[in-house]
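Researcher: Structure for this, please.
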Amino acid sequence: MRQPEVHLLQQGSLLRREDGNILDAHSSICLIRSGQGLIVVDTGAPEDALAVTEALWRLHLAPVDIDIVVNTHGHWDHVGCNHLFPRAVFMAHLLEPEIGSRIPVSAGSCLVRSAFTIGPGIELHPTPGHSCGSLSVVVKDAISSFGGSGADVVIAGDALPLAANYEKRVPPSIHWDRDHCVESINQIVAMAEWVVPGHDAPFRVRRTGYGEKKSDEGK
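Model: Predicted structure, token format:
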């Protein structure tokens, strides 16, 4: 069985104004190579199209090569380049409000309600809170440039957008349900050795001394 690889096509970023409001946001975009084919997790903002295409070219791939696209949720900065992948099967949570508009639905689409296994070592887990249909992708025993070989990687989308949300154990400031956010962060931390957050660099999970809940918020 082929050991899955996780490639970071784009590191997520977040720019705030002085008043704290979000000025600009670009999501993390990942490629998973596995025995199930080529999987892209989130596609970025519309203006990320060239960066996504160039990152794939560096891996000797083109958008038409992608078999599956997983949208962790339907916000514009995570689904803005869905149109680049004409051959892909799209996967998202059934309860995500943007299904059928920002998230394509076709005969081959897969809309999940509970934990779902794409293939050996690759799972989708509902992690609601930021939105009611947020998903995280778990890649077990993965090879990656940031986590080395044999690490369990969780691509979290905005269920855990910033390292600060992990460090302080607080939900993103934009959320559908605060309590669900905290539960999902705890779930992600329990599953991961490395986390790819929605708008920050990948980080390693510490198994001891995980901080107590704070009152301030991250993204």
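Researcher: Any notable elements?
Model: Residues 209-216 have pLDDT under 50 and may be disordered. The first strand starts at residue 5 and ends at 10.
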